[in-house]
Task: structure prediction
Amino acid sequence: MNQDELKALVGQAALAYVQPGAIVGVGTGSTVNKFIDALATLKNTIKGAVSSSKASTARLKALGIEVFDSNDVPELSVYIDGADEIDRQGHMIKGGGAALTREKIVAAQSKQFVCIADASKLVDILGAFPLPVEVIPMASARIIRQFQAMGAQAGIRLQDGQALVTDNGQYIVDVRGLKIANPLAFEMQISQWPGVVTVGVFAIQKAQVCLLGTEAGVQTLRF
Ligand code: 5RP
Result:
């Protein structure tokens, strides 16, 4: 199976976590797109979704799934999202699709985070994937210098030669060369830097379950 087929496999498997009548928390990315397509087959049995990005909202609506404002839904039973990396404790790096802030918000209002990922995303230690950090533009140069002082390389993410602007009107700084041995302490430290909107380490909002797409089928990891 290629990577795309593994993503479709776990997208389909995630339907087992969707309860009848539920409002489902929906992440962002190519793996989640497979989940959204599968979710459309249940659209008459669920109430709808809370979405973590404009892109996922557009896809959900195009398939006839109602999208609720997160402010109108106090709690979600489940949040289904992909990851750029996940370790063996359920900590993740997320934000490759620049949606990390809304992803963390929807994850925080959900009782359970189910991560769907192909096997290439499972790592022993987070940091080989460039860590996305959403920042207020006026703080970006200072935040880059702070990461450089930690021995990392950091730069503003570009799109068509310009700084990429997130759904929230902010920038993404991508940080290379980190080895994140203690994700929880790292997330708490970086979250306190002035101008950091969201760091793409998900340790506070870690996954409780990972549906991992492997050659042998879907492997369920519980944390
Ligand atoms: C988007 C994300 C995605 O979950 C992450 O980038 C994985 O994406 P994909 O499923 O396309 O590999 O965090 O901000």
In short: The chain has six helices and 16 strands.
